[in-house]
């Protein structure tokens, strides 16, 4: 029996060669590695450690690549959101420029033929424009839905008895949309007028929201004989150009830009 590493292997080979040449049947050669594993075990463990280290480096590189791809994806999503907002803003501007091509009670489909339909056909669940623009999501979104709050400072106030009012807040507390009249939503609104001394005057009013023009009409109620007409503007219709109107004369007596705060 021979113990050892590379040198021992050579001795074993020589022994085997001599046995073959001399034809000694009793010559028996055997290689027994040391109990600690010797050269072969050391070599195998070294290779295993090297492979583990390489795999760890590869995993680290993969994690870094995934992080980079995630950042790029998030950046692209933000770019698309900004582009979509820009498109909506352009559509609003085009609609504003082209709205005189349709009648007061009509809706501009936005196609090349400047197709107009009745505003009562907008958001009724059936596409009436050739391009289905009258049923698109951003058109049929209620900018003054239940829970909405709009407020702003009043300027150019000449409303008799209310000319000391400095601030207005609208809160939509109820919304109803009849299945047979989808183009208009019926709302319940509270109007809060705040005067120069900080006193608040409240009233509960009925209102209508027209999807075709994102147009809100708040009707007079109670002792306050004033109503309000509000046109939503902006890419997300988050602002409202409001005019306070006297019930009797229908004359505008105050103006405010209301911002959607909720």
Q: Mind explaining what this structure looks like?
A:
- Residues 59-100 form a coiled coil.
- Keywords: Coiled coil, Disulfide bond, Signal.
- The structure is a single chain.
- The chain is an alpha+beta fold and 262 residues long.
- Among the domains are: 2-32; 106-135, no CATH class; 149-260, Lipocalin (Beta Barrel).
- It has helices spanning 6-22, 38-98; strands spanning 2-3, 31-32, 106-108, 116-118, 149-155, 165-176, 184-195, 200-210, 215-218, 226-233, 239-246, 252-260.
- The protein has an 8-stranded antiparallel beta barrel. It has a two-stranded parallel ribbon with strand order 1-2. The chain has a two-stranded antiparallel ribbon with strand order 3-4.
- It is elongated.
């Amino acid at each position: 029996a021979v113990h050892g590493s590379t040198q021992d292997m050579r001795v074993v080979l020589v022994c085997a060669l001599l046995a073959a040449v001399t034809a000694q049947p009793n010559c028996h050669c055997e290689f027994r590695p040391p109990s600690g594993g010797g050269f072969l075990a050391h070599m195998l463990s070294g290779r295993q450690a090297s492979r583990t280290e390489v795999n760890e480096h590869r995993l680290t590189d993969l994690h870094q690549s995934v992080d980079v791809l995630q950042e790029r994806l998030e950046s692209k999503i933000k770019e698309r959101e900004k582009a979509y907002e820009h498109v909506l803003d352009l559509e609003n501007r085009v609609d504003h420029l082209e709205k005189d091509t349709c009648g007061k009670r009509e809706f501009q489909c936005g196609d090349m033929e400047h197709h107009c339909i009745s505003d009562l056909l907008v958001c009724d669940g059936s596409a009436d424009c050739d391009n289905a623009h009258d049923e698109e999501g951003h058109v049929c979104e209620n900018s003054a839905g239940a829970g909405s709050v709009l407020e702003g400072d009043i300027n150019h106030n000449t409303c008799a008895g209310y000319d000391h009012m400095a601030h207005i807040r609208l809160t939509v507390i109820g919304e109803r949309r009849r299945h047979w009249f989808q183009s208009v939503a019926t709302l319940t609104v509270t109007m809060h007028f705040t005067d120069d001394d900080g006193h608040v005057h409240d009233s509960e009013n009925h209102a209508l929201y027209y999807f075709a023009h994102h147009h809100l009409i708040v009707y007079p109620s109670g002792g306050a004989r004033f109503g309000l007409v509000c046109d939503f503007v902006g890419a997300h219709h988050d602002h409202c150009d409001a005019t306070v109107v006297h019930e009797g004369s229908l004359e505008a007596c105050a103006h405010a830009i209301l911002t959607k705060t909720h």
